[in-house]
Each structure stands twice: as structure tokens, then as C-alpha cells.
Design goal:
The chain is of the alpha+beta class. The protein has 2 domains: about 40 residues, no CATH class; about 150 residues, tt1808, chain A, CATH 3.90.1570.10. The protein has 5 helices and 15 strands. A 6-stranded mixed sheet has the order 5-8-9-10-11-12. Strands 13-14-15 form a 3-stranded antiparallel sheet, covered by helices on one side. It has a two-stranded antiparallel ribbon with strand order 1-2. The relative contact order is 0.14.
Length: about 210
């Protein structure tokens, strides 16, 4: 696929593999990417045919993911037609991509029979928690990809400010950004509730209306 948002990733030219150093191809097909001998201590994604090294998450990033997972698990316990998965690979051949979102929400009926990744299902919600290095990627190419494949709802969360951006209603490869009110609350179509994220020091809370 061709990206709506231009993106020039800063990735290593070579990586250490079990057979010594290897050059990282500029472009790859998903099958080639999955067979490549990537270093175990690194996490790579394929973004519209381009290999990209994911930044190492910091404490605030991981703490916010833990909070989001906790809240979504509680919601899925009540709404038992859905389940949530964190940090699992997703194979998107239509978009020449292999991504590993921070959190995904699926219909349980779609998940039957899956035991290992990468997943080929269409999530109902994808959530990415920003890092300084990933902001351009999350707001640009990944947004384009999720809209292109038709993910109904895409969240981007800032672990520093608590800013929450929700994209929804994909049409012709583009999302509509849902508006926040004056207090920063945004309505999630799947949750059918308004929410905002409050960061207090190293702690995070999710407030609902």
C-alpha cells in the first residue's frame, strides 16, 4: 500500500543475527519479514513494506499500558462477546505490514481457534501508547494502515500528558478524529462512554462519564 502520510524511519542498517551481522533490507514482503532472523532483544515491525525498529518502552509507557489492559479486561468481563490481547503480532498482508500494537480488542467469535500469532483478524479497537520516537509513526503511517484495513476504532495515548486521540469510522482509507470536549473527554464508539486519561506523577487513571 502507499502511505497517505510520508514517513522516513531511522532504523539500523545492520543487525546481529545468529549467523552474524546482516543488512536490513529497505523493503520486505510480510513473508520475508517473518522469516528474517531478527535479534531476540529487539522488536521490529513491518510498516507498509518498510522494516522499523520499535523503541524500547520506558516505565510510564508500560504503566499506562497496564492501566489500559486492566480497564479493558474489566469491560470485557461485563461485555463477554469481546476479549483483549496485549503486544501480539498482527499480520496485515493487504497492507504489506506486520504490526505489534500495544493493545487490541477483538470479538471473541473471531478469536476461536487462535493459539499463536501473528494474528490475521481484524480488531475492533487498536491502542498505541506513544513514545517520543514513535509519535510520528503512530499518528501517520500506522493510522493510515489501520484505516486502510478497516479497524473501526484506533486510540493513541500520550503517557506524559494523558492526551487521548480516538480515530473512528474508517472510509476510503481515512479516519475521522473524534472531538474532545472542553474537559478533554472523548467518546469511544465501542465503549459507548466518554473518557479521559489523567496522569499524576508516575500514576495514571482513566476517568469515565
Amino acid at each position: 500500500m502507499s502511505l497517505t502520510t510520508p514517513y522516513a524511519p531511522h532504523t539500523p542498517e545492520k543487525v546481529k543475527t545468529s549467523k552474524g551481522k546482516r543488512a536490513v533490507p529497505k523493503t520486505m514482503k510480510p513473508g520475508e519479514f517473518l522469516k528474517f532472523d531478527w535479534p531476540e532483544e529487539q522488536q521490529w515491525e513491518l510498516v507498509a513494506a518498510t522494516p522499523v525498529l520499535r523503541p524500547s518502552p520506558d516505565f510510564r509507557h508500560q504503566a499506562l499500558i497496564a492501566r489500559l489492559v486492566h480497564e479493558w479486561i474489566k469491560w470485557c468481563d461485563i461485555n463477554q462477546d469481546y476479549g483483549t490481547i496485549a503486544s501480539m503480532g498482527m499480520l496485515l498482508e493487504k497492507a504489506d505490514s506486520v504490526l505489534c500494537p500495544d493493545l487490541m480488542v477483538f470479538a471473541k467469535a473471531d478469536m476461536k481457534g487462535y493459539r499463536t500469532g501473528p494474528l490475521t483478524l481484524l480488531p475492533k479497537v487498536v491502542i498505541e501508547v506513544l513514545s517520543r520516537e514513535s509519535a510520528t509513526l503512530d499518528h501517520g503511517p500506522k493510522r493510515d494502515i489501520y484505516a486502510f484495513i478497516g479497524v473501526p476504532e484506533y486510540w493513541i495515548v500520550d503517557p506524559v500528558s494523558g492526551g487521548l486521540t480516538i480515530y473512528a469510522n474508517p472510509k476510503d482509507g481515512e479516519y475521522t478524529q473524534l472531538p474532545a470536549d472542553v474537559s478533554g473527554f472523548v467518546r469511544s464508539p465501542l465503549l459507548v462512554r466518554r473518557l479521559r486519561i489523567l496522569i499524576d506523577g508516575g500514576d495514571s487513571r482513566i476517568l469515565f462519564q
